[in-house]
Amino acid sequence: MNTNEVEFGGFFYRIDPEDKTAILSRSNSSNPLFRQEQVLLDLKIPSFMYYNDEKYTVTCIVDSAFKECHAIESVDIPASVFFMDRAAFFNCKSLKKVIIRGNTEIPPFKGVFNRTNLSDIYWYGNIEYLWYFLFRMVSNESSYHPDYDAMTIHVRKDIDEIDPEGEDFWTLEEPFINSEKGLEVTFKIVKDL
Question: What structural domains and CATH numbers belong to the chain?
Answer without folding.
Answer: 4-191 (3.80.10.10)
